[in-house]
């Protein structure tokens, strides 16, 4: 009886460990992903917002202004980045 209990405990613990490792390995690997998801959560064109936010975040040492709009003074690099037309690049 003790042997069966030990085997069942072993399998339950193995299952729990493999599940938690799977979840951790699928988490966003870049610190920019989560920040840009928040920043772009209310954008009309989320795909474009996320693209440029992630570009800017990577170039600016993972700095993304808080909130969904404004607050760009928190990240001068993000604020000052311009596109080829001289307009702000970062959302």
Please tell me about this protein's structure.
- The chain is mainly alpha-helical and 91 residues long.
- It has a domain at 31-80.
- It has four helices and no strands.
- The chain has helices at residues 2-25, 31-39, 46-59, 76-80.
- Helix 2 (31-39) crosses helix 3 (46-59).
- The chain is elongated.
- Residues 1-27 form the signal peptide.
- InterPro entries: GASA (IPR003854).
- Belongs to the GASA family.
- It holds the Pfam family GASA.
List keywords for this structure.
mainly alpha, 91 residues, 0% strand, 57% helix, single chain
Q: Give the % helix.
A: 55-70%
The structure class reads: mainly alpha
Mean pLDDT across the residues is 82
Number of strands: 0
Strand portion: under 5%
Sheet bearing the most strands, described? Answer: none
- Low-confidence spans: pLDDT under 50, at least 5 residues? 19-27
Order of helices and strands: HHHH
Give the helix tally.
4
What form results from the Cα inertia axes?
elongated
Distance between the termini: 63 Å
GO biological process, one term: gibberellic acid mediated signaling pathway
Keywords: Gibberellin signaling pathway, Signal
Protein name: Gibberellin-regulated protein 10-like
Family: Belongs to the GASA family.
Summarize the structure.
This protein is mainly alpha-helical. The protein is 57% helix and 0% strand.
List the topology elements.
Elements: H1 2-25, H2 31-39, H3 46-59, H4 76-80
Helix pairs in contact: 2-3
């Amino acid at each position: 009886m003790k042997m069966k209990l030990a085997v069942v405990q072993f399998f339950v613990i193995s299952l729990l460990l493999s599940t938690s490792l799977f979840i951790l390995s699928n988490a966003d690997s870049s610190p920019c992903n989560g920040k840009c998801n928040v920043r772009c959560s209310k954008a009309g064109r989320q795909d474009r917002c996320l693209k440029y936010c992630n570009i800017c975040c990577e170039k600016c040492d993972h700095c993304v202004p808080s909130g969904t709009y404004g607050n760009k003074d928190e990240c001068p690099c993000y604020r000052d980045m311009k596109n080829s037309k001289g307009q702000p690049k970062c959302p």
